[in-house]
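During the no-cost extension, the postdoctoral fellow (Dr. R.K.) reprocessed legacy sequence entries with the updated structure-token encoder. One reprocessed record is reproduced below for audit purposes.
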Amino acid sequence: MTFSREITWSAAYPDKPKIVANQLLVETGNDADTIRVRSWPGDKLQFIVNGQSYVVDIPPQQSFNNSLLIKTNGGDDSVIIDDDVKHYVLIEGGDGNDTLQAGGGVTSLSGQRGNDTLRLGSNFGYAEGNEGNDRLYGGTGNSVLIGDEGDDVLEAGFSDAHKWNKLEGGDGNDTLMAGSGDNYLHGGNGDDRLWGYDRTHFFTGEGNDRILHNSSQDSIVAGANDQFDRTQGSTFTEVKPGNAGQ
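Re-encoded structure tokens follow.
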């Protein structure tokens, strides 16, 4: 395991150079690793890696220019970021069946290869399963979930009615489940199942898809071979045959 730091300086003011980007990189090997990240007093973070504790300085600003990047490479890894960590965090799972959990900062999760489980946190989050049959869960903040390849399950999550969620299945036979707030579900390729909740906008894509919706505020763009289920009180606001979403 290694810790390294990449610092970018601005030459706009030669007499007083300014740091414009500061990224802390934590990288493990190809074994099955466990990483937990906690806030630590004095602008520091605590990393518990395979039972060993490390305390590292990190800039306090919640900024895209000051970030934490974790790469776990091979192995079935587990990475958990506590909710009191407010920094911008990027996690790349690499090979293996990984479990990645976002914290309280803006977060980007990439499962990469393997059957991964990705969970977003309390801030804005982006999660992409990549290869494999993945499970992606939205957090209490606004969420973007992309299954990509494989037969994936995407769940938006529930919290504030003012949040929004964007789910895209990609390739494979995927299951997309909306959450609270405004939901945008796009099945992509394959025979997908799309479940609505609250205010949901459905775009089925290619394949023979099935839609379940339960709100009069839903809108649907679907193909001729798609099926629709609805609970009592719901209505269709729009149905268009053809290649939906194109």
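The chain has no helices and 23 strands. The two ends are 45 Å apart (CA to CA). The remaining legacy entries will be reprocessed before the final report is submitted.
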